[in-house]
Structures are given as C-alpha cells and as structure tokens.
Amino acid sequence: MPVSKGRQKNTKKRYQLEPARKKKTNPPKRWYAPMVLSVMGLGVVIIVLNYMQVLPFSGGTTKPGFLWLGLGLIGAGFLGTMGIR
Q1: How much is the pTM?
Q2: Which of 23, 27, 44, 77 is 20 to 30 Å apart from 35, CA to CA?
Q3: Which residues contact 84 (CB under 8 A, 6 or more apart)?
Q4: What angle do CA 37, 70, 38 make, to 5 degrees?
Q5: Distance of CA 61 to CAs 12, 29, 50, 65, 67, Å?
C-alpha cells in the first residue's frame, strides 16, 4: 500500500511570545537629564514669577504670553524625558 506524504508543518509562528528585540542604542549623555529638568524648572519659575507680577518687560501685570512660554518649556521638558532611560 502506498504511503502518503504527511502534512507539512508551518514553520512560521502565528503569534510571538515575546516581542522582537530592538538594537541597543547609545545611552544619552550625562548632561541630558539635568538639562531636561532645568528646562522644566525654568518653565515653572516663569509661570510663578508671572503670577507674582515681577517679570521684567511685563509692566507690573500678568501677561498670557509668559504663561504660554512657561507651559511650552514644561511641555518641551516632558517631550525631552522620552530620551532618558
């Protein structure tokens, strides 16, 4: 009696049990984390000084431009933290 061929097993796995490993990247420089934190801190200082009405060029009043500048620096700092491991 003839022998039939068996089913070929699929060599590709349908689901991966662990994700593919990424290439190792160089760690950020030592000055990167303090710089990001100082940018965020500068944003907070600008907002607080604007609230206290002591910023130069503000004319003794609060200005929304300084608020947006401070919030922008804080946001840039948060975006910069993505590069810190």
Answers
A1: 0.67
A2: 23
A3: 28, 32, 33, 36
A4: 15
A5: 67, 40, 8, 12, 12
> Packing angle between helix 32-52 and helix 64-80, nearest 10 degrees?
160
Write out the DSSP string of 11-80.
-S-SS-SSPPPPPP-PPPPTTHHHHHHHHHHHHHHHHHHHHHT--TTSTTS--HHHHHHHHHHHHHHHHH
Cα→Cα distances 73→2, 25, 52, Å: 78, 26, 19
Report how far residue 19's alpha carbon sits from residue 25's, in angstroms, rounded to the nearest whole number: 17
pLDDT confidence band for 1 (50 / 70 / 90): confident
pLDDT of residue 36: 95
- Contact call for residues 55 and 66 (beta carbons, < 8 A): yes
